[in-house]
Structures are given as C-alpha cells and as structure tokens.
Amino acid sequence: MMNNMLLSKSHIIFQLGLWSFVGLLCSATSIAEDVSVTKAMISSTYSVDTLPGESLHHLLVPPKTRKRKQARIRRYRGVKYYTYSVDPNTTDIALYYDDERRQRYQTIDNLNTELKAASKELLFATNGGIFHVDGSPLGLYIEDGRQRKAVNLKRGYGNFYLHPNGIFYINEWGFPNILESLEFMNNFGENPQHILYAIQSGPLLLNKNRINRKLTPNSPNRKIRSGVGWSVTDPRSGMGKMVFVLSDSPVNFYDFAKFFQEELNCTRALYLDGEISEMYLPELELNRTYNRFAVIIGVTNKTQK
C-alpha cells in the first residue's frame, strides 16, 4: 500500500515536470513565432531588411531616426565619383544666383558666407548648369517662383545644344525632378506655375532609362563632368531620390550616363557642366569652391514653417 502511494506520487511529480517542460517549450516556440511575425510586420511597414546579426531592437527604430550617409565615394569603370543624395523630407534644396542687393554670389564660398550669416548650414553645393560669358544662365531659370530666363529651345554649338537638353526643377512643395525641356514646356507652358526653382542645362544624359542617342561609347572626349539624376528606390511606387555626381577624373559622356544608369539606378539624368565643376561636400571633407559660376545649387537643413 505504502509502495503504491509512493509510486503514485512519483508518477504525479513526473507528469507535472513533463507538463512544465512542454509548456516552456511551447512558450519558447510562441515567442520565436511572435518575433518572426514582428520582424515581418516591421519589414513590411518600414521596408527594412534584416542584416546578419541585426537585433530586433535595431529594427524597431523607425528609418527616419537611423542616420544614413547622404554622401558617398563610388568607383565605376576605373573612375572615382563623388555622390550626394538629397532627402527632400529633411533638407531644403534651392538655386542661388544673386543676393537681395542683386550682387551675384559667383562662388560657393560667397554663398556659404551668406548662409552662415543667416544661421543656415550649407550641407552640399555644386554648380548649377551652363551659362553665358556674361555670367547669366543660358536657358530657363526660376528662383523663388519667379522666372528670370525663359526656356531655350534654339539650335547651336556646344554641350547645352546637344539635344535633347533638360530641366532640373523643384516644385513649390520642395520636391525635385528632371524633365526633357520640350516635355517641361508641354507640361507647364511658357510661364510655369507651382515651380519654385528651375535650371536648364544639357545634354540630357538619360531619359526614361534610355541613354541619349547622341552620346557614343568609346568617345575620346573625356572631361571632368558633373550632373544630377533621379534614382528609383521603390519601383512599385515610383518613389526615389535626387543624386548629384562629380567625377574625380575625366570621363566621356556615354560612360558618365552609364554610371547614372547602372550604378545609381537612375532613369533620368542631366549634365550640369564640365571642367570647371566643383562640389562642396563637408561630409566627405571635399571643399572645391574656388571657381566662378552663374547659378549654385545648395542644400541646407529644412526650415521650420
């Protein structure tokens, strides 16, 4: 009798231990499933891919709080390029020609001095397109919503007239884009509305993911070149970012266009200028600011409105 009672108690204790172990195992499985589901939810919400060794806590931080490098050095076909990606959600991009006294900025250094006096930090700057010998823009120029030069669709000699050329513009909501010049005219007319800034330059390197047919592979015409392109980051929605580029050594037009297309995933890209091109990029300790220009493209932290 006593032996049977002891056996029964031992059996009950064993069952309780077994049930506790099974319960812990189920809980662990449930937690693992919850973590997997949470990761899936975060990935679908923020489009963030999990990297090897990346913790769940890291994924829980929204992407806007995760600092991303806007500036990068890239190498493509033996040429080094400086690139800067513009985030219109956190920065303001503007075109600068002259100040309130109608004195031309001319150099990036002069612009930087003016912005510092206004308590603004210049994050990035580069030259903004081809200009006349008198320092005026060769084509369309809009600043602060006011058109100061009209679209130029004339034929002529030089890179600007290597048609089709294009227009880099920023709408009144602060978002940049690139259009072929004639397409811009068809969309906005001779007196564009809802455009805050615009500069015409040429040639257009890429249009709808096609390289300008006038740009030839293996061309011996190699120069320092600068440009700007629209890079698609989400093919489903068409969302993307604007990327500015400066080559560190001479490159021909075709290879320059291929860099935008293949390395930066751009569908549209516009040539800005050649040998005189400069870039102010403190993030990479790049400070080429001695040449004189007509228009300067500058990026500052977004102004609270």
Account of the 3D structure:
By secondary structure, the protein is an alpha+beta fold. Helices cover 26% and strands 31% of the residues. The protein has five helices and 17 strands. The strands form three sheets. It has a seven-stranded antiparallel sheet with strand order 1-2-13-12-14-10-11, covered by helices on one side. A hairpin with a 2-residue loop joins β1 (71-76) and β2 (79-86). The chain is globular and about 45 Å long. It starts with a helix and ends with a strand. 33% of the residues are buried.
Biggest pleated-sheet summary: 7 strands, antiparallel
What structural class do the secondary elements suggest? alpha+beta
Run of helices and strands: HHEEEHEEEEEHEEEEEHEEEE
Unreliable stretches (pLDDT < 50, length at least 5) are: 1-16, 18-66
- Overall mean confidence score, pLDDT: 80
Helix content: 25-40%
